[in-house]
Write a structure and sequence with these properties.
single chain, 607 residues, alpha+beta, DNA Primase, Chain A, DNA primase DNAg catalytic core, N-terminal domain, five-stranded antiparallel beta sheet, globular, DNA-binding, zinc ion binding, DNAG_N, EC 2.7.7.101, DNA replication
């Protein structure tokens, strides 16, 4: 197929590149015999289980099973597509990546022109950076200083200055043999049809280079220093820049966070840069357009959670509704979307300066999940006590649910809509099936589990996959993080809490803190564990959508505790002894009753 990379080139590339060097640039490795080892970059661990073999040109993690060659590592670690990973490896060796069918003169001309355009834009970026350091850039430097930006952040984002001249960049590039036509094509010059005159597009503006995922400059954004309009100006669409696909700050976010888990979408360059100044290096901005499906497809390839950040006014709410419509088809199981509304009159730039980074991060963590915002915006302005209004409300929510991919989230939202409206879920499913184009029959709904076998709201399987499915103990933690007051519904003793279960020890610690009465909000509880692995775990649970209605949460918690009690009653003496002994060896002080129980179990096992 034309355009494919020949297999022989890929084989040759892998034979010439050293996987130890590629991995070692991103992971701290230590020589251990013939291999190298280090902490796995694909899962949390304290002892190294990640091995890289120079002989086999292969990496493998004995903890999570991740493995592959240099190409696979770049695809997984840098979140690159296969062709991008090949190009990155080839660039290390100074090689051009061939394409089957590349002898087509038209294809060769297009590729040559694209590379010339990228080189031209890099020259322009260098010009803007130089002008910022020169005397003529003093006003821009003063502006950046007033905005509180450090030289390090200015450097990381490649910020520059376009001088207050009509032909400054034009002359600079012309002296290097670059014609006006190509400068116009790549958005650096404006061509006036009436006079035939060309002049610099960006004048007397702070310049923000827009980079692609590989860090190449593909466009610019400019913020005016004077009173000229518009206040912000972007490059036009060019052969290498399409605003519906690119996001400002994405390259920089990946550089600062090799293991990105969440990305926050804000409105402008200054929001991204201001947040970076406060250490929040996971923000990106759209470029003069609403968030598109292409934007979200790109983001969800890198992270499982996207947070939309909007002003709290009417315009912000309308923008959030449009974002909701766009994100719905992307919401396969395991992905999360949240909606953060800022206080009126604030933007991320002003808010992070006033409240600080930790408070802003707390706002992001506690942002409204998609499910909550969906029901809230559908109910806005409606009197749900009236049947007709409830019908419109249900129709709107049902239409949104219909845009979701098949999965657990879709089923849970249907169940929640049924609960809120009093309409059977099967009726909603029939309505949705009737709306589908012919030839696509709905799958039958899964049979409900008997209530005696599991808690009422068991929507996820026990275990841990990439989508982050929750075990039963984690569900207790999630309930307590979302609603700490539920601790009052727990029994006085903690015998039900199994320290040997995943999240068991953390659950016991959280319960004790909540019972002590000092941590009665999610934010304060998270702050107690800040900077620890336990804190990361609790923050992850706080970010997960909790679809259990408020009225059903206490019953859910009590059902989970009863499940653990039944399990412990079925536990063998050896299992009970091992669990108590493990707690004692870990340094925990057992109660007198627990020590007596330990001794009794020991005698029983020896008898």
């Amino acid at each position: 197929m034309a355009g494919q990379i020949p297999q022989r080139f890929i084989d040759d590339l892998l034979a010439r590149v050293d996987v130890v060097e590629v991995v070692g640039e991103r992971v701290k490795l230590k020589k251990t015999g013939r291999n190298h080892s280090g902490l796995c970059p694909f899962h949390q661990e304290k002892s190294p289980s990640f091995t890289v073999s120079a002989d086999k040109q292969f990496y493998h993690c004995f903890g999570c099973g991740a493995h592959g060659n240099a190409l696979r590592f770049l695809m997984e670690y840098d979140k690159l597509r296969f062709p991008e990973a090949v190009e990155q490896l080839a660039a290390r060796l100074g090689l051009e990546v061939p394409r089957e069918g590349a002898d087509d003169p038209r294809a060769q001309a297009r590729e040559r022109k694209r590379k010339e355009g990228v080189n031209l834009l890099e020259l322009a970026a260098s010009f803007f950076r130089e002008r910022l350091r020169m005397p003529e850039g003093q006003g821009a430097r003063d502006y950046l200083e007033r905005r509180g930006l450090s030289p390090e952040v200015v450097r990381d984002f490649g910020i520059g200055y376009a001088p207050d001249a009509w032909e400054g960049l034009k002359r600079h590039l012309g002296e290097r043999g670059i014609g006006e036509a190509v400068q116009v094509e790549y958005g650096l010059l404006v061509h006036r049809e009436d006079s035939g005159r060309t002049y610099d597009r960006f004048r007397d503006r702070v310049i923000f280079p827009i980079r692609d995922i590989r860090g190449r400059t593909i466009a610019f954004g400019g913020r005016v220093l004077g009173d000229a309009k518009p206040k912000y100006l972007n490059s036009p669409e060019t052969p290498v820049f399409h605003k519906g696909r690119e996001l400002y700050g994405l390259f920089e976010a990946r550089q600062a966070n090799p293991r990105l888990e969440r990305l926050v979408i804000v409105e402008g360059y200054m929001d991204v840069v201001a947040l970076a100044q406060f250490g929040i290096r996971n923000a990106v901005a759209t470029l003069g357009t609403a968030t598109t499906e292409d934007h979200l497809s790109r983001l969800f390839r890198m992270v499982d959670e996207v947070v939309f950040c909007f002003d709290g006014d009417r315009a912000g709410r309308q923008a959030a509704t449009r974002a909701l419509e766009t994100v719905l088809p992307q919401m396969i199981d395991g992905r999360q979307a949240r909606f953060l509304f800022l206080p009126e009159g604030e933007d991320p730039d002003t808010l992070v300066r006033r409240e600080g980074a930790e408070a802003f991060e707390d706002r992001v963590t506690c942002a409204s999940p998609l499910s909550e915002f969906l029901f809230e915006q559908a109910a806005e302005g409606r009197d749900l006590a009236r049947l007709e209004e409830r019908e419109r409300y249900a129709s709107r929510v049902l239409g949104a649910i219909g845009r979701l991919p098949e999965g657990v989230l879709k089923s849970l939202l249907l169940a929640e809509l049924s609960r809120r409206t009093g309409v059977d879920q099967s009726d909603f499913e029939s309505l949705m099936a009737a709306e589908r184009p012919s030839g696509h029959e709905a799958e039958p709904p899964p049979e409900a589990s008997p209530a005696t076998q599991a808690p009422v709201w068991q929507g996820e399987e026990q275990g841990a996959g990439r989508a982050g499915s929750l075990g039963l103990m984690a569900r207790v933690l999630q309930l307590l993080v979302h609603e700490p007051g539920l601790v009052e519904r727990l029994p006085e003793d903690e015998d039900w809490c199994d320290d040997g279960a995943p999240d068991g020890r953390l659950c016991r610690e959280v319960v004790r803190l909540l019972k002590a009465g000092r941590y009665r909000s999610a934010q304060v509880l998270l702050a107690h564990f800040h900077g620890t692995a336990e804190g990361e775990r609790l923050a992850a649970l706080a970010r997960r959508e909790l679809l259990i209605p408020a009225a059903a949460r206490a019953t859910e918690l009590e059902g989970l505790v009863e499940h653990f009690r039944r399990h412990q009653r079925r536990r063998s003496p050896q299992e009970a002894f091992d669990a108590l002994l493990a707690r004692e060896r870990a340094g925990e002080r057992l109660s007198r009753e627990e020590r007596q129980r330990l001794m009794a179990l020991l005698m029983e096992l020896k008898g």
